[in-house]
Amino acid sequence: MQDIIGTGVRRHHDNLLQVFRSYYQLTKPRIILLLLMTTIAGMVLASHGRVDPVLALATVAGGAMAAASANTINCLYDCDIDYIMERTRSRPIPSGRVQPRDAALFAASLAIASFTLLATFANLLAALLAMSGIVFYVLIYTHFLKRHSTQNIVVGGAAGAIPPLVGWAAVTGDLGWAPWVVFAIIFFWTPPHFWALAMMIRDDYAAVGVPMLPVIEGDEDTARQIWLYTLLLLPLTLLLVYPLHVSGAIYGATAIALGAIFARKAWQLLADPHDREKARSLFKYSISYLMLLCVAIALDCLPLSQHVTSTIAENLPQWLGAIGPM
């Protein structure tokens, strides 16, 4: 039998599978999947599409455990407001299925395992970057910013932007301009993504006193901020093509197409900021946007893709000449 102090809720698990499911839910696996996509993008960029399988597996596993540790601590820290909010009341800690002490031990074990795995199979820089992500997310975002500043998401977004640095460092042992550009892409992607969600569930945040931008400044100002960050985001995505030249035509075309859709949805929300369906549409698309952008980075780095684009570039003048004036 498990008890959560302050909620008066008691729950128990009927079998081992339910225990596993509860701890799995503590890690917020859907968030981890997105973070791992950016980690892989960083590795693929650094290795030019030739990632060592053992290194890739170790880095992905270590990154997943670091993210899981941070998310578990976040659940532990926020269990009081999670119990009040309808959307989060069924999470393992506020629902009484996992004790805070057990969640803390679980998070610590994940962090230790992550550091050990990355330091052993990758390098110390990758391990330290992963740990910095945990510290920044828990200490800076969750503790200092989330309940005290409307800019919580903006500054806190740096924590979610660290995984591509981990991926790049795992391959190279250092950091260059390219991973920092990917970092910046995720950093500027975060406010439109989370503020769109905050607009959808503004009443929940207001009920627990979390000063999300829509709660404090209103939907109109939030929509303007989303539009501004979207405009800043889109040019950043093209820096990988020029002047860095680490990505090519496949990625560039994909970034432009995805960015145009992103801008259109942000503009629609700006035109009607009180429409929560438009906020929902932008929020859902933002997830697909980042995942597809990472897929485009990976595809563009594959040797076959590079060969195809190189062949097209070399033969394009000849093909255009052949279909010229008849």
TrEMBL record:
> Which GO terms are recorded in the biological process aspect for this UniProt protein?
heme O biosynthetic process
Record function comment = Converts heme B (protoheme IX) to heme O by substitution of the vinyl group on carbon 2 of heme B porphyrin ring with a hydroxyethyl farnesyl side group.
**Which Enzyme Commission number(s) are listed?**
2.5.1.141
Q: Which reaction does it catalyse?
A: heme b + (2E,6E)-farnesyl diphosphate + H2O = Fe(II)-heme o + diphosphate
Q: Which InterPro entries match?
A: Protohaem_IX_farnesylTrfase, UbiA_prenyltransferase, UbiA_prenylTrfase_CS, UbiA_sf
Tell me the pathway: Porphyrin-containing compound metabolism; heme O biosynthesis; heme O from protoheme: step 1/1
- In which compartments does the protein localize? Cell membrane
Write the protein's name.
Protoheme IX farnesyltransferase
